[in-house]
Amino acid sequence: MGSGRRRELAAGWPVLVAATLGCAMGASSLPFYSLGSFIAPLQQEFGWARGDITTAFLCLTLVLAVIAPGLGWLIDRFGPRAVALAAIPGFALTLYLLSRFEGTLSGFYLCFGLAALLGGGTTPILYTRAVNGRFDAARGLALGLTLAGMGVMAIALPPLLAVVIGDHGWRAGYLMLAGFALLPWPFVLASLGGRTATG
């Protein structure tokens, strides 16, 4: 690794930590890697079919796709930091609402759509923009590390949820996810406002 890349990583590691945590705990990670753990308890409580529950993935994905251009505009207009600071608590709120959920299947879908709408600013669209702006010589490595956080979450989250749901129920599982969703907020507040490699 060249000295320029080492210096860049040494100076930009706070941004890298914030972006890695943000991707791992965002709307492109937590709902997707967790829903499988909730299928059995949701079937037991509400009597829904497995296919009906997993349709929530489609709702989340469709809303994320629709809002992506507008999200990109907001990031360009206000910067990654401001957008993420607003989106993180909004996304966490929707996960908390799921922990209190008492309703119909359509209401469940609505919660996932709301998670995408309010949490769009917690997706890799935002965090890779922040990393691209901070890193130049080490940009490829920084992006790889940022997105690796999602892979770690894909491995770690299901067994952790299995324990929490088994001991405390599915509502506690969504409450835990809401707490996870808030974790990147102080790192974003502290780290994403610095200078960039391009400006």
List strands and helices in order, with pairings:
Layout: H1 3-24, H2 30-46, H3 50-78, H4 80-99, H5 105-119, H6 124-134, H7 139-168, H8 170-182, H9 184-191
Helix pairs in contact: 1-6, 1-7, 1-9, 2-3, 2-7, 2-8, 3-4, 3-5, 4-5, 4-6, 4-8, 4-9, 6-7, 7-8
What report would you give on this structure?
The chain has 9 helices and no strands. The two termini are 24 Å apart. 40% of the residues are buried. The protein has one domain: MFS general substrate transporter like domains (Growth Hormone, Chain: A, Up-down Bundle), CATH 1.20.1250.20. Helix 3 packs antiparallel against helix 4 and helix 6 runs antiparallel to helix 7. 83% of the residues lie in helices and 0% in strands. The longest helix has 30 residues. It is elongated, with a radius of gyration of 18 Å. With 199 residues, the protein is mainly α.
Structural class comes to: mainly alpha
CATH architecture: Up-down Bundle
The percent of residues in helical segments reads over 70%
CATH third-level topology: Growth Hormone, Chain: A
Mind describing the biggest β-sheet? none
The chain-level mean pLDDT equals: 93
Q: What's the helix count?
A: 9
Q: What is the rounded Rg?
A: 18 Å
| End-to-end CA span | 24 Å
The counted number of beta strands is 0
Low-pLDDT parts are 194-199
Order of helices and strands: HHHHHHHHH
The rough form would be described as elongated
Assigned CATH class:
Mainly Alpha
Counted up, domains total 1
Find the CATH superfamily: MFS general substrate transporter like domains
How large is the share of residues in beta strands? under 5%
Transmembrane segments: 12-33, 53-75, 82-101, 107-128, 140-166, 172-192
InterPro entries: MFS (IPR011701), MFS_dom (IPR020846), MFS_trans_sf (IPR036259), Proton-linked_MCT (IPR050327)
Protein name: MFS transporter
Keywords: Membrane, Transmembrane, Transmembrane helix
